[in-house]
Amino acid sequence: MPLYLEDFTVGQKHLTGRLRVDAEAIKAFAAQFDPQPFHLHEEGARESLFGGLAASGWHTAALTMRLLVDSDMKPAGGIIGTRAEELKWPRPVRAGDELHVEVEVLEVRPSRSRPGEGYVKCRSTTINQDGQPVQVLVMNLLVQGRPPS
Amino acid sequence: MPLYLEDFTVGQKHLTGRLRVDAEAIKAFAAQFDPQPFHLHEEGARESLFGGLAASGWHTAALTMRLLVDSDMKPAGGIIGTRAEELKWPRPVRAGDELHVEVEVLEVRPSRSRPGEGYVKCRSTTINQDGQPVQVLVMNLLVQGRPPS
Question: Which residues 54-113 on chain B approach chain A with CB closer than 8 angstroms?
Fold first, then answer.
């Protein structure tokens, strides 16, 4: 059942499943997209700000997206982010971390330029196995309105 | 030569190299991190908002990071983003697009809590081969100050 714009309400919460990240995945993402020593190998990470191997923030963001796509939150038309107002990584993701995402709807508004569509602003907080946030993202999603019946 | 906090000035610009994205890379990223029809295959994309295969925004973000890491902009301690204030995708990245990134320094300020370090706020605009922006990111980077000599 897709969720139409009218199905979203401020304060609504959605919860994703869980996903475990290992060192291989952290290093593979880094080799492709963010080849800096603290994301690539333990030795390079030890003397860095992170004090040990840390996932790229963009890896954390990509894993967050995967958890959202696999979740029960299925906006009509797909999960289409248009503009984030905030994206931060309060602490790094480490090898062995198990992540899940909590989504809270902050705002629902019809689009002025796209009739029959609108925006859902939500805060998605990515959380590790110790209950600590590793990413906070405030994103505006483009969502279809319910088709006239 | 690493760039210390003192080497950054408001208005300074940095330019990256170029990177071409093909359909295989778009689909591979989507399969791993954003498995929605419009990122996975041409058929699923045709009837979507995008009207054709489009890269995940998180893929565009990851490619932007790769271009930055490979560029001459080498902050001391690495490119460490702590908090983005804006992240938007004005148009999708398509198979065959060739991307580069223009960075402009918006603000330089010492950290109150981390002596000898500071923040460089910059806008990085990712641009396709037609000169059109595909991503705008305003990010705060944590940068080391120059060590006392």
Answer: 56-58, 61-63, 65-66, 69, 77-89
Instruction: Please give the structure tokens belonging to residue B57.
Output: 């925004």
Q: What is the pLDDT along chain B (149 residues), one digit of tens a residue?
A: 899 999 999 999 999 999 999 999 999 999 999 999 999 999 888 888 899 999 999 999 999 999 999 999 999 999 999 999 999 999 999 999 999 999 999 999 999 998 899 999 999 999 999 999 999 999 999 999 999 87
CB nearest to A69's CB, from B29, B34, B86: B34
Find, in chain B, the residue whose alpha carbon is nearest to that of A57.
Answer: B81
Question: Going by C-beta distance under 8 Å and a sequence separation of 6 or more, which residues neighbour residue B62?
Answer: A29, A32, A33, A34, A56, A58, A62, B29
Instruction: Output phi, psi for B17, to 5 deg.
Output: -75, -165
Give the phi and the psi of residue B53 in degrees, each rounded to 5. Answer: -55, 130
